[in-house]
Inverse folding.
């Protein structure tokens, strides 16, 4: 497309919008505005912020369509409410809170590309920093809750035996599947600090008594036997070599004919589309220079090489995600 000066400046200042949203999340404004509309002065008093700057940020958020203003009082806009109201089942506040951790990391992109080195210590969000790990897992739960209705139908469930959720993170998808299907047993497999948060999220679930937590590192430890495997949202942390090794391990944990479902952000051939997936690949390289987003066809080929058959992929509607399904050969 032909670029205009304004389009180029909109791209160059795109982080302004993200920073405005992130500041409101950090200040806890959306939780306060969930309860009732507030004037700038009322919000400043409640949140302990400077009145003039509070008013300026509120106006900017209204300009972005995140808030509405009526008679000097601000409320979360009806269009943004499903994602910003604290009482919404698809609330993204925790995901946006974790995204604040990524803000300074992206500022180091040029240096990371120059040196081919990570911008943060590897594993900082997977147990190296307990507070960051908690924000990461809760953030992933927030995103997964908003996507669950689109993702869940793509998962092939076991004919018998438990569903093994490899790299389960918050366990949102497999827990949702167990809640929706009576009798489905689930094994959530992830690192101990991650499962600690997942256990909290499972309390009160109608399927809590059918969910087992198995601590381990899927790259190093054996996988427990299962009737089906779900590997969702973690492939982008792997290299082609480590993914191939994991798929072989997954094949070994399944009986012949049992299904496996791999779901993740994936790019089309060439790697430039969808744009969000291409940018997310850069995001992963800031943590691990060898990691990145896979092509759907590449994922299919690795599963076949690992001993799976009936391999097929399809895009997830309205998301830059693909689901690749296969049966153990």
């Amino acid at each position: 497309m032909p670029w205009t000066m304004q389009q180029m400046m909109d791209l160059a200042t795109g982080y302004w919008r993200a920073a405005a949203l992130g500041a409101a999340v950090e200040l806890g404004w959306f939780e306060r505005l969930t309860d009732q509309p507030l004037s700038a002065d009322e919000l400043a008093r409640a949140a302990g912020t400077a009145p003039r700057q509070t008013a300026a940020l509120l106006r900017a958020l209204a300009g972005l369509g995140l808030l509405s203003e009526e008679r000097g009082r601000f409320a979360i806009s009806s269009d943004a409410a499903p994602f910003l109201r604290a009482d919404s089942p698809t609330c993204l506040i925790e995901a946006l809170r974790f995204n604040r951790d990524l803000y300074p990391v992206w500022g180091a992109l040029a240096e990371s590309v120059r040196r081919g080195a990570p911008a943060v210590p590897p594993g900082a969000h997977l147990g190296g920093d307990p507070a960051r790990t908690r924000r990461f897992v809760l953030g992933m739960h927030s995103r997964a809750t908003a996507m669950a209705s689109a993702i869940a139908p793509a998962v092939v469930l076991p004919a018998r035996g438990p569903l093994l959720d490899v790299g389960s993170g918050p366990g949102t998808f497999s827990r949702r599947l167990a809640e929706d299907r009576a009798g489905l047993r689930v094994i959530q497999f992830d690192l101990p600090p991650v499962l600690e948060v997942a256990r909290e999220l499972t309390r009160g679930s109608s399927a809590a008594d059918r969910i087992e937590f198995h601590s381990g590192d899927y790259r190093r430890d054996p996988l427990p036997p299962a009737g089906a495997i779900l590997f969702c949202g973690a492939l982008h942390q792997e290299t082609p070599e480590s993914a191939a090794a994991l798929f072989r391990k997954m094949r070994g944990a399944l009986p012949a004919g049992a299904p496996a479902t791999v779901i993740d952000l994936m790019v089309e051939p060439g790697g430039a589309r969808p744009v969000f997936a291409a940018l997310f690949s850069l995001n992963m390289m800031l943590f691990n220079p060898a990691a990145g987003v896979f092509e759907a066809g590449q994922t299919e080929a690795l599963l076949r090489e690992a001993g799976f058959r009936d391999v097929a992929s399809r895009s997830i509607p309205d998301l830059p995600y693909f689901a690749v399904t296969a049966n153990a050969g």
